[in-house]
């Protein structure tokens, strides 16, 4: 029976490795159009709105560059399309700067299905965020994407990113997209965090090793702790692949896409004794009911809801200093005054050097890619906006808002001297500013990393915000 359970968990892990189970509202959100002019045709006249309570300012109309709006489609069911362009300080600043609007959208059905439907119909959104996979190659082969080579000379994107990295993104010799969160250095958003109130209630036990984690989770289970009548989940992993990836990391195995580096050779990681030990550890967590039994089928939204309400003891995921910090922690703090997400070093298995346990994988090519389709009416101006976002000035704006919001002055390197830390913002304040990468559609990891370090170096450690502590703890450079 024990072998059968181990085999079942192994099969489950392999099936979900590399996949992300996620779900979100896929409805399109429209932005505010400019006021009508005498030259508008009946088809382009905006619909009149009798709602006197709508105080969203209309974008200006530049005599030389008329306002236009484009659709930014993210091919992920979980992608947040709620933000409305022009309703916060960040997007308002870019709207006024470029006289442009961005309407967010995502699939309201299975992402692969939606992409197939759009390709078959021959109609694509103006801009798409997609994976660098077979679908991207198919779009290129069907001549549905615009090559960006003519836009690259002199661009921020080409200046800030190594030419070798850009060349690795070429298909048939051309650049068909902008790499999102590309980097020349090791970085990552992953990590481990603890529900501080529960940990302190149970005596603040050590959490340095995988054995410590196992013992603590058993304590949580046996304590029968509930939140709003719902049981607390002892060990909550992020998206399905995290359950396997984080176990491998703790047991000293650095594996990507099924292989691990062993000396100068690549080896299937399942053949490594350390990987097998990681699987046995996970199997024990599962058999002891320390992992949520719905883990492999629950959605990203359900996971984030558990974190926001505090129905977890330990969380390990790839989004600690990203989505969890931006979207979940403010809600958690509002619901749990005095509590905190306590970031901890990743646990190390017996015999593994803690300094060699990584929390995230990384690639110089970043996460995914932003492409402009041939259906886009103003590709040059779209690229101009996306290139600005990718620049240092754009990264400052999308992270920390415009001048006068969270900062008044820049230092000698062009990074903001903050008046307040991001982690100190309430959810309402963050919505009003639109900071914290909400509109950072072409992330620049190198600039973001240097900016974060510059900000941390200016303030005493006792004044660090939560995300500052988490970022420094998981810094891999």
In short:
By secondary structure, the protein is of the alpha+beta class. It has helices at residues 2-16, 89-98, 111-121, 134-141, 156-160, 163-168, 196-201, 210-223, 240-250, 273-287, 300-309, 320-335, 379-390, 392-400, 427-433, 445-457, 466-473; strands at residues 68-74, 100-105, 127-130, 178-180, 191-195, 226-227, 230-231, 233-237, 255-256, 259-262, 265-268, 312-317, 341-344, 368-372, 407-410, 416-418.
Task: Write structural notes for this entry.
- This protein has 477 residues and is of the alpha+beta class.
- It contains 17 helices and 16 strands.
- The strands form 5 sheets. A 5-stranded mixed β-sheet has the order 2-1-3-14-4. A 4-stranded mixed β-sheet has the order 8-12-5-13.
- β15 and β16 (416-418) form a beta hairpin.
- α9 crosses α10 (273-287) and α11 crosses α12.
- It starts with a helix and ends with a helix.
């Amino acid at each position: 029976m024990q072998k059968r359970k181990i085999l079942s968990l192994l099969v489950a892990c392999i099936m979900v490795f590399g996949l992300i189970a996620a779900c979100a509202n896929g409805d399109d959100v429209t932005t505010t159009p400019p006021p009508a002019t005498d030259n508008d045709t009946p088809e382009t006249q905006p619909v009149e709105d009798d709602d006197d309570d709508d105080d969203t300012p209309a974008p200006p109309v530049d005599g030389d560059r008329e306002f236009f709006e484009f659709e930014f489609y993210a091919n992920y069911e979980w992608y947040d399309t709620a933000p409305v362009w022009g309703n916060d300080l960040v997007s308002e600043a870019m709207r006024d700067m470029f006289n442009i609007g961005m309407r967010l959208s995502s699939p309201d059905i299975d992402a692969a299905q939606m992409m197939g439907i759009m390709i078959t119909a021959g109609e694509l959104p103006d801009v798409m965020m997609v994976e660098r996979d077979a679908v991207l190659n198919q779009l290129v082969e069907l001549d549905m994407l615009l090559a960006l080579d003519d836009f690259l000379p002199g661009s921020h994107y080409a200046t800030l990113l190594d030419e070798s990295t850009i060349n690795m993104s070429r298909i048939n010799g051309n650049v068909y997209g902008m790499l999102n969160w590309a980097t020349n250095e090791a970085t990552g958003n992953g990590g481990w965090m603890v529900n501080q109130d529960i940990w302190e209630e149970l005596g603040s036990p050590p959490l340095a090793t995988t054995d410590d984690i196992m013992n603590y989770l058993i304590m949580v289970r046996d304590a029968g702790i509930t939140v709003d009548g719902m049981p607390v989940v002892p060990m909550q992993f992020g998206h399905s692949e995290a359950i396997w990836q984080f176990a491998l990391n703790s047991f000293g195995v650095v594996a990507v896409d099924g292989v691990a580096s062993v000396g100068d050779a690549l080896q299937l990681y399942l053949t490594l004794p350390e990987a097998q030990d990681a699987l046995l550890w996970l199997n024990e967590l599962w058999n002891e009911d320390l992992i949520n039994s719905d883990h492999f089928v629950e959605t990203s939204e359900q996971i984030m809801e558990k974190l926001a309400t505090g129905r977890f003891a330990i969380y390990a995921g790839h989004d600690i200093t990203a989505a969890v910090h931006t979207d979940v922690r403010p809600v958690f703090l509002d619901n749990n005054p005095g509590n905190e997400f306590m970031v901890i070093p990743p646990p190390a298995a017996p015999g593994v050097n803690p300094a060699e346990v990584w929390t995230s994988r990384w690639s110089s090519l970043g996460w995914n890619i932003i492409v402009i389709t041939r259906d886009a009416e103003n590709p040059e101006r779209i690229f101009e906006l996306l290139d600005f976002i990718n620049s240092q000035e754009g990264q400052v704006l999308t992270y920390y808002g415009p001048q006068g919001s969270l900062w008044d002055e820049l230092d000698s390197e062009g990074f903001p001297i903050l008046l307040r830390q991001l982690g100190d913002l309430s959810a309402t304040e963050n919505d009003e500013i639109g900071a914290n990468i909400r509109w950072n559609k072409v992330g620049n990891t190198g600039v973001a990393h240097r900016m974060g370090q510059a900000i941390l170096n200016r303030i005493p450690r006792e004044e660090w915000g939560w995300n500052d502590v988490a970022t420094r703890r998981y810094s891999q450079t």
